[in-house]
Amino acid sequence: MTAQAICPDRLPRCTLPSVSLQNAAIPPNTSHNISANQIRQDANARRAAALAAQQAVDATNDATAPGTEPDDCPAPAPARARRSEGKAQSASKRKRDEERKKDEEKAIAKIKASKTFQRRRQQYDSDDEMSDEDEAARAIFEERMAPLPDQMENCEDCGNRFRVTPYSRRGDDGGLLCPKCSKELDKEEAKATKRRKTNAGRQRRQIQSNLLDGIYPGAKDLMTLCIETLAKNVDMAEDFGDLPPAMVERLSGILCKKREMRSDPLNLFLRPGTDTVTVYDGARLSSDDYIRIFQYCPTVKDLRLRDAVQFKNTVMDHLLSTKITLEKLNLHGANLIDDERWNRFFKEKGENLKTFKLHYTDGHFGDEQLALLPKTCPNLTRLKIVHNQKVTDEGLEHIAKISSLVHLTINIYGKTSSPPYVEIINGVGPPLRTLCIDKANIDDSVLEAIHENCQNIQKLRLTDNEFMTDRGFANLFTNWYNPPLTYIDFHKCRHIDSNDPRDNLDGIGFSSLGFEALMAHSGKTLKHVDINSCRHISLQTFERVFAVDKKYLDLTFMNISFCQAVNDFVVGCIFRSCPNIKQLVVFGNFGVRSVKIPKGKILTGIPTAMGMQTEGTEDGEGRIAG
Amino acid sequence: MASSSQSQAPSKYVTLISSDGFEFVVLREAACISGAIKRMLDPNSGFLESTTGRCQLAEIKYVLLHHTPKIFKYAHRRQYIYKMAEQGGIVLEKVAEYFYYNYRNRNREDVPDMEIPPELCLELLMAADFLDSEPRLV
């Protein structure tokens, strides 16, 4: 509905021709006291009056001389041609236009000559927008000639009449805009600036992300593209057909990353006959969903659930009531299963269990349950108890009796000491291939036990420790019967003392001697080395280890962040000695400033704004990593 | 790509043939992104393909006619097949398109993702698995 229809008393002023008044404001639901007939009569009368006034205005518009605008047209802008002039293009009008143009030109010339204008020109000299003198003068002219506040004006955009305020916006052609149109314009502009900003940020992050994923530069591979498309359209899918398990797992990973693993998508992964179910983020699944896993896939042998908070007593009860025999169970965040259920689980289902990994159980799963393991799980080869708050030294000792163990990872939050760990290594050490002990207050006696007992270790992780000494590490790797390792992680094995932050007189932590002994023992086969925060390794050691004649062909990943001695030269030496390295992490190494990075390598964590850099000078395939 | 130093230089183009007989002639270098095709065409492999430059891909159909996965919700299977054929439900063509897309963008950064029609994506996934289009650092 137009503005005219709402305020009929202003109608005569309107210069718009032939305004339809058919839909004049008549409230659809009139109240009881007013008769419809009377309203109709009133409306008719108003309509007639409006028509008469309109004709009168048109007549005067045609007749009046250019200088004297009709009184009822309050806009004082003589310069602005009204687009609603109508069909009558008489000679007098043309004449009037010409005169108006002349006036305008005169006014503009005056503006150009004025001192303020000259000053303004100087100010804006460098500005591109104001470079054209004529344009600038015209802009000022139009600004001056615009209707003053509290006068009526036709909107440049929609043509509706509105009251001018000091805040009225100017449109593209210099005219004023009504509040409605200016609001829309504001909204569009805000949207444009906002979108541009977020897009730029997103793009930059995407490039960095691709860089770390090893797809830079170049395109994603076809399989990734397909899986991503499938993940986007997963709501359309009914089932996955005979998709290979590796791809199903990748698909699950993508969905979980996007936090979209709910009941419906879960059903797609519960393929009858499958033996593996992997959910990387089960936070949005309910207990019923977990029960459904066992109902749909009674053949499941390998169950991996992360963030499975709702995997609680009821689910465990259901599992215990079925005939399902799990071989591998990897449960993360299931902190609502009580100790009694765990006891029953090991007693009833422990016999076939080969892998048991348990993360984040808060107040449950303690010494008692560990005591059950040697008796009830004769086939257990892989045990991982991490982020556990309940287990103590006494419980750990029971692990020493699980003679079938091959892989062992322990991360207990409570205070634990060396003796139980020594006992474990004495008990199950020889066949162990993986040994990971995180955040335990162990000392050199454990390293000695490893040296004495272990003969098959491939992966060794001892982290976050302030008691083991450099000498201990060196002794471990000197004349060790164990074949060379492939995976080493000794991060945060270092001396901390705020009173004496630089010196390390007692040789605490993984340091120069240990590092040299390690690389001499395992350098040939090491693939992954993480020694971040081992800050007392000296520059000379790095130089000796990565000397010209040393080559470490298998090394693909290395983290030497916060090792204070590392500088440009060391990084260069590492790239020279490790031709197959893919990623080198150097956070907090302020000696690394401008280093030449060979093609295909990723250096992460340089202390510059970018933080990350790749460089390619050779010709060859455009890929960073495979 | 590792071009041979044979007396007779191999053609720059190779022919990919789908199981239902459609042929696509593509740039050798682009097609060799695929591990499987690369091994087929390797002059040292001694495969017939390496001399003729024609790869018979029995696993990949041009038009999907019988093997249609039950993946997308269409009322009738027949209708689905019809729809696929009409839309150009063409796997090998898409694969060839990908080869060129990848070849064109091999050294660019921030490459826009190639559009893959959702109906085709499962078939294409199987083809990608077979062709092993994983990038390899040589």
UniProtKB/TrEMBL annotation, chain A:
InterPro entries for this protein: Leu-rich_rpt (IPR001611), Leu-rich_rpt_Cys-con_subtyp (IPR006553), LRR_dom_sf (IPR032675), Znf_Tbcl_Rhp7 (IPR056451)
Compositionally biased tracts (Acidic residues): 125-134
Region: Disordered, residue numbers: 45-134
Stretches with biased composition (Low complexity): 45-59
GO cellular component: SCF ubiquitin ligase complex
Coiled-coil regions, chain positions: none
GO biological process, alphabetically ordered: SCF-dependent proteasomal ubiquitin-dependent protein catabolic process
One Pfam family here: zf_Tbcl_Rhp7
Biased composition (Basic and acidic residues): 95-108
Domain DNA repair protein rhp7 treble clef: 149-187
Protein name: DNA repair protein
UniProt organism field: Lachnellula occidentalis
Taxonomic placement: Eukaryota, Fungi, Dikarya, Ascomycota, Pezizomycotina
From TrEMBL, chain B:
Superkingdom classification of source: Eukaryota
Primary localization class, coarse: nucleus
SMART domains: Skp1
Keyword Signal: no
Gene Ontology cellular component terms for the protein in this record: nucleus
Location within or outside the cell: Nucleus
Alphabetized UniProt keyword annotations: Nucleus
Nucleus among keywords: yes
Matching InterPro entries: ELC1, SKP1-like, SKP1/BTB/POZ_sf
Gene Ontology biological process terms, A to Z: ubiquitin-dependent protein catabolic process
Function: Essential component of the SCF (SKP1-CUL1-F-box protein) E3 ubiquitin ligase complexes, which mediate the ubiquitination and subsequent proteasomal degradation of target proteins. Controls sulfur metabolite repression, probably by mediating the inactivation or degradation of the metR transcription factor.
PANTHER family cross-referenced by the UniProt entry: ELONGIN-C
Family to which this protein belongs: Belongs to the SKP1 family.
Protein name: Elongin-C
